[in-house]
Amino acid sequence: MRTQVGIIGAGPAGLMLSHLLHLQGIESVILETRTREEIEGTIRAGVLEQGTMDLMREIGVSQRMDREGQAHHGVEFRFNGKGHRINMYELTGGKHVMVYAQHEVIIDLVKARVDRGGELIFNVGDVSLHGVDTDKPTIQFRRDKDGELEELVCDFIAGCDGFHGPSRPMIPSSIRTEYDKVFPMGWLGILAEAPPSAPELIYCNHDNGFALVSTRSPEIQRMYLQVDAKDNIANWSDDRIWSELQTRLQTSDGWNLIEGPIFQKNIVAMRSFVCDPMQYGRLFLAGDAAHIVPPTGAKGLNLAISDVRVLAKGFEDFYKSNSRDVLNRYSEICLRRVWKAERFSNYMTSMLHRFETHSPFERRIQLAELDYVTSSRIGLTSIAENYVGLPIEW
Ligand code: RFL
Ligand code: PHB
């Protein structure tokens, strides 16, 4: 088998890249270890930046997002039992975010690829990369996990295979620097059947730890609680979760958190990670394969999308004008934006969570930081500008 761009992984990065390439008349094949049902059912991110939303519209995959997604013009920071609204729309000159779940984006992108005859091979096994520093890199794999070993010959390979995929280790360790920070806390996330308790997301700092109120639809709500990274979900009964959410989110103005049956709960670890460079020979990494952010800034999925935007442009220039300029600078262009998203995610995480190691002095500094950013126009604008998403600087 042969193709122009072999894509490993059908997450947001791989699917979006394949669709962008298709629109430019460039062929690709996606190889994915999981089944279509699995990728379409995995609950992850929820917030799309303005740029991600604009791109979905530009490429004709936004019908359901525009119908079912929720445009949010503001976000609340809550601390000391009081809410402070950040009016992103006004502060950024009309930009906002869209609350639309990642698995819905996946469903829309898979459909767009399948409807246009795109080649997506699900449920593959034994995926390995070969000759990434030659002109004809190849990917070996088995269909249905244990079929015959097959080979996909490519001009380029896009490693969109997430944090644990086989692509990143193909960049020789002698030229690869990995920057890593593991946080001592995790997020316990729930999905509950209940009406929304608030019109916008609430990021809450409390003495007991962070809490986040998000949403999925008028009937389904998504909430998170800071827990210890080593905590076990078995320690968290539904009653304990609600009681802790109620405590952390309580205000003095009569605001009410609406409870309902919890039908999904899990704990996710929090880390920051960056791989530099994001390319080697004819291999290009995109999304979580190259970098991870803690979820506090809602940036992971959006970074995956901005990476493949740059990569698609690089391939377009290569095939249409034989120019390698963007491809050569791929890593440099992406990392500039990636590091700013790492900075913002790290900042939001530090400002909003409780750290065991904080002295009473550091705790007061944290609250002063929150007070400053929610009361100064410059502080507010900085949060708003980063939250709706920074531009790609070519
Ligand atoms: P993905 O989504 O991990 O997709 C990688 C795909 O590669 C496949 N794969 C392989 N395929 C073939 N061969 C192999 N050997 C393979 N190994 C792996 C995997 O099966 C998978 O399908 O990476 P991608 O495309 O880079 O997308 C990144 C995003 O998924 C991720 O950054 C976000 O989910 C992070 N994130 C959030 N991002 C946001 O922008 N906004 C949010 O609000 C937000 N909230 C979150 C989040 C992540 C969370 N978790 C679970 C870590 C909330 C949470 C709780
Ligand atoms: C979500 O709705 O899953 C969500 C929202 C905001 C975040 C992270 C996750 O910062």
Structure characteristics:
six-stranded mixed sheet; FAD/NAD(P)-binding domain; flavoprotein; alpha+beta; 20 strands; 2 domains; binds P-hydroxybenzoic acid; HB_mOase; 12 helices; 394 residues; 4-hydroxybenzoate 3-monooxygenase activity; single chain; eight-stranded mixed sheet
CATH topology (level 3) name of the largest domain: FAD/NAD(P)-binding domain
CATH-wise, what's the superfamily of the largest domain? Answer: FAD/NAD(P)-binding domain
Evaluate the radius of gyration. Answer: 21 Å
- Euclidean distance between termini CA atoms: 34 Å
User: Could you say what the CATH architecture of the largest domain is?
Assistant: 3-Layer(bba) Sandwich
**Secondary structure: number of strands:** 20
Number of distinct helices: 12
What's the number of structural domains? 2
Strand content: 25-35%
> How helix-rich are the residues, as a percent range?
25-40%
Largest sheet, strands/sense/barrel: 8 strands, mixed
What is the C-level CATH assignment of the largest domain? Alpha Beta
Mean pLDDT: 98
Poorly predicted ranges: none
The hetero molecules present are: 8-demethyl-8-dimethylamino-flavin-adenine-dinucleotide, P-hydroxybenzoic acid
Content-based structural category: alpha+beta
Which term fits the overall shape? Answer: globular
| Strand arrangement in the largest pleated sheet | 6-5-14-15-16-13-17-20
Describe, in plain words, how this protein is organized in 3D.
Helices cover 36% and strands 27% of the residues. It contains 12 helices and 20 strands. It has helices spanning 12-23, 36-41, 50-58, 63-68, 88-91, 102-115, 238-249, 300-321, 325-328, 330-352, 360-375, 377-388; strands spanning 5-8, 28-31, 47-48, 70-72, 74-79, 82-87, 97-99, 119-121, 125-130, 138-142, 149-153, 156-159, 177-193, 202-205, 211-215, 220-228, 262-276, 279-280, 283-285, 291-292. The chain has 394 residues and is of the alpha+beta class. It has an 8-stranded mixed sheet. A hairpin with a 5-residue loop joins strand 14 and strand 15. The structure holds 8-demethyl-8-dimethylamino-flavin-adenine-dinucleotide and P-hydroxybenzoic acid.
